Amino acid sequence: MYDAIVVGARISGAATAMLLSKAGYRVLLLDRAVFPGGKAAATNLLHPPGILRLKRWGLLDQMAATGCPPIREYGLRSGPVELMAELPVVDGVGEAYSPERGKLDQILLDAAVKAGAELREGVSVRELITEDGTVTGVRGEAEGRTPVVEHARVVVGADGSNSTLARLLGAEKYDSHPVLNKSHWSYWEGLPHDGRVRTYRHAHQHAFTWPTHDGLTIVGVALPVRDFKASSDEDRDRTVISAFAKVDPERAQLLRETKRVDRWMTGSVPNFLRRSHGPGWALVGDAGYTRDPITAAGITDALRGAELLAECIDTGLAGRTPLPEALARYGRRRDALVTGHFRYTREHATIANHTREELAFIRAMTRSPTHGRDMVGMFATMIDPAQFYAPASIHALLRYMEPGTDPGWKLRMVRSLIHGAPRRIPGATRLADQLIAKNLGPMGEYLV
Ligand SMILES: Cc1cc2nc3c(=O)[nH]c(=O)nc-3n(C[C@H](O)[C@H](O)[C@H](O)COP(=O)(O)OP(=O)(O)OC[C@H]3O[C@@H](n4cnc5c(N)ncnc54)[C@H](O)[C@@H]3O)c2cc1C
After folding, report:
1. Residue 31 forms beta bridges with which residues?
2. Does residue 304 sit in the same domain as residue 235?
3. In a domain, 38, yes or no
4. Whether residue 248 is found in the same domain as residue 302
5. Residue 14 Cβ contacting ligand 1 at under 6 Å
6. 320, 345, 370: which is the final residue of a domain?
7. pLDDT tens digit string along 383-404?
8. CB of residue 285 inside a 6 A radius of ligand 1
């Protein structure tokens, strides 16, 4: 009998198993893969809150030593407007990294085993064991069809977005949205590394690039599903380089002068939350929450989720709170942690062109001492969209609208509604907020 069985031994599962083992619990960690097994589809980016978890767990130096440089600035170029800002700092961490995915998985797995988790590879979980409606164990098959039957006080599904455990448990999805875009990406050699994530929005294309491991650079483009075509490698070279050429001709030229050194990869992900817990079970990582990769937040979310879940399970198993209550708290806190960024990611994932008013706002962010940093912090899961789009923040941003240029009559009207009156009139401010919301598309919706 184990205290916990964790199914899935990559980012979320290995981190959960490591934390529970460190807390003194007897943990069985199962995965159908044999490590190092397969190459996970990922563009590798790990935002500062993920880096902070690695630092807390004593794994940051090991990760940085895999040969990936720190990234301190993120940017967005949309049409003629370019925003590039330093990341905010959280608990002393203001860097992102883009480590080789297999190496990060292995570091977490080794840490789980070192902490005392019992790892069994090549075991596919196929059934759950329940008693009076409470999950008490798993049944599976090891290689050679050897049956595996194990029991635990709690079973954790960390088995990815197509989670077998979620299916067996009937954990329903909510806030579910289909795949919104698909991306092509690959690795480039020879591009200068300047510690920046660059993203671009133009003509319903989202191009992206950032330094990753071993001197390589991730280069790719996401396209709305309707525009995406399966194509040859040469066609993809053309599609991606021409997406850059429209918004950053210099970078496009650099891409032509340097070399793609891996095959093109293609990825797309639906968007959903799943019920995160029930009697004797919980889901963590992509199994419980899957979002479009456009904000590159899955690994960061998986690490934060693992920390939250391990803390709640510890409270329950130690008897400080009844386990069902502890798991319910995990569910509430997980939803509170991710819901705002989930909505922001979905909107980003539609790859809608920015409106004239949105561009005026982004330009204002480049002039404000705080909004640019907060905008990239929002992308990096560090600033809650509700905070960024709070009326006070938007009103403060209006002060940085460029003087002398015409931001459009709608924004002029909004600005005068907010600032024109000698003292703030609540009705006028509310009306102004509604106008901003109406004309700012997705950005403005947060305001109301
Ligand atoms: C195209 C693309 C790009 C991405 N880019 C980024 C990025 O730049 N940054 C970022 O943070 N995130 C990115 N992500 C998301 C990120 O890859 C995921 O969020 C992350 O892998 C989730 O980790 P996980 O441990 O929860 O699940 P997974 O990594 O999916 O691991 C699940 C594990 O469970 C095991 N398993 C499954 N079923 C069973 C079973 N029945 N029995 C036993 N074992 C089982 C599997 O073998 C696997 O090892 C990207 C995703 C895609 C698709």
Report:
1. 121
2. no
3. yes
4. no
5. no
6. 345
7. 999 899 887 888 888 888 876 5
8. yes
Q: Give the distance from CA 388 to its chain's centroid.
A: 18
Domain count for the chain: 3
Task: Find the 218 Cα to ligand 1 centroid distance in Å.
Answer: 18
Task: Return the ligand 1 atom nearest residue 10 CA.
Answer: 25
Range of the domain at 341: 2-44+100-177+270-345
| 161 shares its domain with 187 | no
Residue 431 and residue 294 share a domain: no
Please list the residues that pair with 148 across neighbouring strands.
140
User: Which domain-ending residue is among 310, 345, 380?
Assistant: 345
Q: Is residue 364 a contact partner of residue 402, using CB atoms and an 8 Å limit? A: yes
What is the Å distance from ligand 1's center to 12 Cα? Answer: 8
Question: Global pTM?
Answer: 0.93
The response to whether residue 45 sits with its C-beta less than 6 Å from ligand 1 reads yes
421 and 371 housed in the same domain: yes
Burial class, 234, CB count within 10 angstroms (exposed 0-12 / middle 13-18 / buried 19+): exposed
Neighbours of 187 (CB within 10 A): 22
Instruction: List C-alpha distances in Å: 238 to 135, 221, 225.
Output: 52, 11, 18
d(CA 267, CA 60): 28
CA distance 157 to 391: 39
- Other C-beta atoms closer than 10 Å to the C-beta of 389 total 23
Contact 98, 210 (CB under 8 A): yes
Using one digit for the tens of pLDDT, what is the confidence trace for 15-33? Answer: 999 999 999 999 999 999 9
Q: Same structural domain for residues 213 and 338?
A: no
Q: Are residues 253 and 285 in the same domain?
A: no
Choose one of 29, 32, 108, 382 to mutate for the ligand 1 pocket test, by most ligand atoms within 8 angstroms of C-beta.
32
pLDDT of res. 143: 85
| Same domain (yes/no): 116, 188 | no
Q: How many CB atoms lie within 10 A of CB 167?
A: 11
Give the lowest-confidence range in 170-174, 226-230, 318-322, 328-332.
Answer: 226-230
